[in-house]
Fold:
Amino acid sequence: MHIDIQWVPFPPSLEILSKKTVVVIDVLRATSVIIEALSQGAIEVIPVTTVEEAARLVKTFPRGSTLLGGERGSRKIQGFDFGNSPKEYTAERVNGKRLILTTTNGTKAFHSVAAAEDVLVGSLLNGTAVAERSLQLDRDVLIFPSGDEGAFSLEDVVCGGMLIDLMAKKSHTSNGLTDASSSARILYQRFEGSLLEALRLSGHGKDLDALGLGEDLFYCARTDVTDLVPTFRENVIRAS
Amino acid sequence: MHIDIQWVPFPPSLEILSKKTVVVIDVLRATSVIIEALSQGAIEVIPVTTVEEAARLVKTFPRGSTLLGGERGSRKIQGFDFGNSPKEYTAERVNGKRLILTTTNGTKAFHSVAAAEDVLVGSLLNGTAVAERSLQLDRDVLIFPSGDEGAFSLEDVVCGGMLIDLMAKKSHTSNGLTDASSSARILYQRFEGSLLEALRLSGHGKDLDALGLGEDLFYCARTDVTDLVPTFRENVIRAS
Structure:
């Protein structure tokens, strides 16, 4: 079983995706939001790439059944029900509802890796659970950090490194690690004692802080608050 | 002044390269070979992408003036004068000669970044000198690890991290660092006490060792053995 991580979020080839388990990560903030919304009782999340697609799609569902969430430039989109802060997604607001989500990086990432055998949703919030599920599936794993507008994003690779560290420890071997996954593991180990520090050091974390969204960093830096491992299949993310 | 590093060696866009200083790194072994050959008195190195191109080009120069070096599958190419081990490039053999070099990763990398304002040749052998030259040129820097057949290569990113660490220390600021360059610096710091360990841990280092070329790892892990900063311009690499 090989465990690899793609440091930069360009779409992988079909050959790379074939027969793999892919874990999509967007710590700040899309995968944290998805995990939070489903934990709070949302029935499903549909990730779409454009605001127009979200606006069109919501009209195809019964009124009141479906909510719109997401961001552009890290800010809530006009006319949407939610921005991209996990704390907005309370049980009171999302329980029993469908969520259509569009964000700059994270929601695109799902469509880039849709051809994989399994696509799991990972973040710090469900790290141990997603590492265990990846091992259970017993296929080669590709961790896919969503990055920051096409570039490398520190917090996503640190989260990927945490999953790699957990998988290597649980399987009692680091034989299946590539140069990329060994390096992500080293990067995680640097921040193991304070994951919040990685989020604060990252370019995207600094941007959020400057926009007054610093509280989201605390929220997204928490580890193992849920055992939920959402999966993306046929364009929809569900709790299992 | 921004200092960035591209972790995965896909060709950067013209927009990314424009007005930048690019440092190409292939620790194992192309840039180590280029620096060694020029240090030993070779007049210039012409990096080409294919064996056929090398064979065709050598015929256009006066007989005896030009040597052929490089590898495929890490092994010397049939009919070539040299493989890709730096130690082969002694003054006795290369002084006053032109070298045509073709390797799997490194020589391709130069052509991927040819549109940059300056293209410098970096390795552990000339780390401090190349960091200083990059600062003197006073333009944004992109470090370009050649990688391993399109994938991430540990030893090249560790070397890039060393250059980033040196530049940050010499300029007394880490303000210009991106998530990618901060992470490469952290990776370098993990191996600072033993760069040879990084070369041995890397997939490509293990392959070379298995082929009986382990001595090259010692050779390429040495730091600051020369002040030479070769530059690539109009398809040719020269000492300055």
